[in-house]
Amino acid sequence: MFSPDGGFFVLDSGNFRVERFDRDRKFLGAFGRYGSGAGEFVRPTDIDIDVAGSIFVSDDRRHDIQVFTSDGIYIRSVAVGNAGPFISANGEGWVTTDHLPSGRSGIVEYKPDGSYQGGYDMTAVMYEATGITRDHQGDLFIVGLDASGGGSTLVRLANGGSPKDVWDAGGLGVAVTPTGDIAYVLRSDNATIRKYLIPKP
């Protein structure tokens, strides 16, 4: 994930840490280690950065999202006991994860203070999410298994609303252009990245 200064962060799940690089790819350091305490990871699965440069890391075994400064200093935990493996940061301090508190498939947003903002039950269109991202308009794009659990799907969720588009174009991960007109989906069935042109809402 790229930071506002052009540097970037890499989630090194196998070593339970986050690595930081400058814009010239020079290694600047790392933070995190194995454990269940603050600033520690058991199975980190996703990372994102908000507009202020705060780092969000989800953990699929701890079921939480930890928030850090860009220097790796632990700030707080969000969605403790409820977080899914995938996240998307939004604005300053807002974060979305892919599990409803009930455990059902859905999208949940948390406020900067860590409190619950709201959620969308997506069981009608998706059995399990495998990736989340957001365009600059605030629309969410979620890839995952379809409602039957057998196929794959790509869903566009309106900023502050319900699913507005569903396509048979899912995979293991998704990235979209800032304008939300192109989606790149990582496919596991043939080890390719597919490019999809996304129509305007």
User: Uncertain segments of ≥5 residues (pLDDT<50)?
Assistant: none
* Strand element count: 18
Morphology call: globular
- Structurally, the number of domains stands at 2
Mean pLDDT: 86
Output the structural class.
Answer: mainly beta
Tell me the CATH superfamily of the largest domain: TolB, C-terminal domain
Output the radius of gyration.
Answer: 16 Å
Q: Look at the structure and give the CATH class of the largest domain.
A: Mainly Beta
Gap from first CA to last CA: 27 Å
Question: Could you describe the largest sheet, including whether it forms a barrel?
Answer: 4 strands, antiparallel
Number of helices, counting only DSSP H or I runs of 4 residues or more: 0
Brief description of this entry?
The chain has 201 residues and is mainly β.
Explain what the structure shows.
The chain is mainly beta and 201 residues long. The chain folds into 2 domains: 1-121, 6 Propeller (Neuraminidase), CATH 2.120.10.30; 131-201, no CATH class. Helix content is 0%, strand content 50%. The strands form 5 sheets. The chain has a 4-stranded antiparallel β-sheet with strand order 4-5-6-7, with no helix packed on it. Strands 8-9-10-11 form a 4-stranded antiparallel β-sheet, with no helix packed on it. The chain has a 4-stranded antiparallel β-sheet with strand order 12-13-14-15, with no helix packed on it. A hairpin with a 4-residue loop joins strand 1 and strand 2 (17-21). The radius of gyration is 16 Å and the shape is globular. The mean pLDDT is 86.
